[in-house]
Design goal:
Strand order of the largest sheet: 3-2-1-4-5
Mean pLDDT: 92
CATH architecture: 2-Layer Sandwich
CATH superfamily: Ribonuclease H-like superfamily/Ribonuclease H
Largest sheet: 5 strands, mixed
Helix content: 25-40%
Low-confidence stretches: none
Length: 169
Amino acid sequence: MEDSGYLDLYFGDESHFGLTPNVPYAWQTKENPILLPAAKGKFLNVIGLMTRKNKLFFEVLETTYNTDKVISYMDRFVAQTVKKTVVILDNSPIHKSKKFMAKIEEWKEKDVLIFFLPPYSPELNLIEILWRRIKYQWIPFDAYICFQNLKERLSYVLSNFGGKYDIIF
């Protein structure tokens, strides 16, 4: 139905980005190890809805997400949809909260349907591939030098997803 243009299909989730780098698998010698700085403190949380055609609707916060923030984000997303839309989500407590579940009927009236994946099946949520690519491939090591660098690099990758950065499904 998505391929025929009848509806839009989005995969949604949240992800955390901090100054502790995600170290990809890499060969290194004893004499010349790969060293990356690690720091606790500030972090970025990203909420996103992604299509298989690399369209991304996202928001970045320097605080944690709660149900009210996710509902507000979803309201903004629903307001910009133009046709029947299906959103696939995992079973996180935020997505299954009473407040969130109470909004599902309102969104359905605006042609946005929420579909929950089976429990413990993150491999079925395609946006997980995006988070992995960002963390392990697309954010350069220098992003972890300071929080401002991380913010800039993450913003650049997210803003250029679907252009410079893409995933072939």
